[in-house]
Amino acid sequence: MNTIYNKLTTEKHMLIGASLIRVAFGLLILYFYFIHYGQRRFLWGPNGMQEHETFTQNLITTSNLSLYQLNDSVLYFEIIFHIGIVVALLFTLGFMGRLTAILNFVFIWSLQHVNVLILDGGDNVMRIILFYLLFANTTAFFSLDRYRRKEKTPSSITATPLSNSFHNLAILASIIQVSFMYLTSGMHKIMGEVWQNGTALYYILQVDEYTHPFFKEFILSSNILLLIGAYGAIFAQITYPFLLFNRYTKYIAIFNIIAMHVGIAIVMGLFTFSATMISIQLLLLKDKEYAWAYAIIKNLSSKWKLRKGRKYEAEHVEQA
Amino acid sequence: MLKKVIILFSAFLFFIHFMFTAIYLAPFNPVKAKYGFIVNAYMEPLFSQNWKLFAPNPASSNNQFLVRAQFSNGETTEWTNLTSFMIEKNYKNRFTPYNRLVRIQRGAFMSLYQKDDVTRKLSQEVEERDLNKEEYDYILDNEMTKEQEENGINILNRYAQSYVSSLYPEKDITRTQIVIRETKATPFSEQDNPNFENERTIHEFDWKEFETVSSVF
Q1: Which residues cross the membrane (chain A) (predicted)?
Q2: Strands B173-183 and B62-71
């Protein structure tokens, strides 16, 4: 019991992962704002896909709130939308950590609930994890905050048992959330007849929105590929939480999930969904593992530079 | 001391939170039937989530979303297909707005038939046991599903009207009509049968008075 308590309170774990996921989510949010910039009034505006009145009525029925409900003028909509973009940019850059994170959550929440039909599971899980991460330190690395702290005093980073424990619980919550997501998603697949008999991919690839003619033909040409796809997805999802318990099998879990999502991105074209899910895997590596990976890359690149230098030298010596 | 209490209490809340999440995400079961309303009240809307991704039975039919308009001079246009061109664009490049726009019509159309867990279970039972449907109508046709259906139709109409107004910018449009042509997938066992005819359903909606909607494009 005491060791758990100590682990929770003595230091913040996964600081690099938490910062990386902030950057990744921030970029995805900015992509979302900008790719639909031209359709913003239709998708989220007061006289768009939904009338303002219907939208506010829906919020009441679902006891929900959104910044966009407060006024039905186009001007107000434009102001909120553009502030949202600025906030998302500051969030990505890691400026004023927690305050920006809270604002970004409020703006994303507000935007998502104006129009749920444009969303997918990736946006859903991102929204929940953004909430958990409000309790974490996501600007320890790769952030303007870090840069500003360095300018002042390097030891001004506050690390109390309380903030450590909130940070660690927030990271753990995010990991459990994704584990639950994969586990239930896998369980529901097992309950489906076409997933059981391995023809699920055959049916999904018939749906024009979730397919691509080239990959459709390729995958449908082989029953073995169909089986690997269907059973592989179930296997990757169901085993995910359990593989995370061990520090070596964790890598298998991450590999499985990334492989699955790369497949979904390329074949089904659900690119942002996959990018979100792959980004979440960034939270699973410890700071030590990142340092280790960084050292290997640095070592390799310096070796490569050295070899290139030698080659250059050798060529020039020959010429001389 | 106080800090320690706060830490332990937050760990306790953490545990409770994921207990609720687990029940919320589980398939329909006795605990959920009894305490579901408490769990839902806690989880929604902040932690709303649904992970029945392409499961248990993935979508397998293709919906073509068609619209036609009538002008003030009485002329009616041909049907315009709103789905196929988006799908083509999405095949050519995945990094365009169409990547997500193409999914709106399916979502709106599906919401016409979506029900919550209890209502779905009940309507299944009524169907399976061949019960008198009228006796259960007061539950099955509740306010929630009615409102959802109205919203879904509204969205489809507004989508169509927004599109039509960009298609005929010079014309005075008085009303529009939409149709959803649903084509069921060819069953796996029939994929090599060239004579197989896919089951098709046409969902025809009522003519709708034209309203100006912010344009999609």
Answers
A1: 14-34, 74-95, 102-119, 125-144, 165-183, 224-245, 257-284
A2: antiparallel
List chain A residues with CB under 8 Å of B26: 184
Instruction: Tell me the whole-structure pTM to 2 decimals.
Output: 0.92
Q: Which range of residues forms the domain containing residue A68?
A: 9-149
- Please state the domain count of chain A: 1
Which of A145-159, A172-186, B183-197 has the highest average model confidence (pLDDT)?
A: A172-186
Which two three-digit tokens encode residue A314?
A: 């050798």
Contact A198/A227 with Cβ under 8 angstroms? Answer: yes
How far apart are the C-alpha atoms of B28 and B36, rounded to whole Å? 9
Tens of pLDDT, residue by residue over A119-157, are: 999 999 999 999 999 999 999 999 999 988 877 655 545
Q: Hey, are the CB atoms on A269 and B99 less than 8 Å from each other?
A: yes
Q: Which of B17, B53, B92 to mutate to test the interface with A (most CBs of A within 10 A)?
A: B53
Contact criterion met (CB below 8 Å) for A111 and A57: no
Domain presence at residue A83: yes
Q: Is residue A208 part of a domain?
A: no
Q: Does residue A116 fall inside a structural domain?
A: yes
Closest-CA residue in chain A for B87? A209
Average pLDDT over residues B6-25: 96
Q: Is residue A92 part of a domain?
A: yes
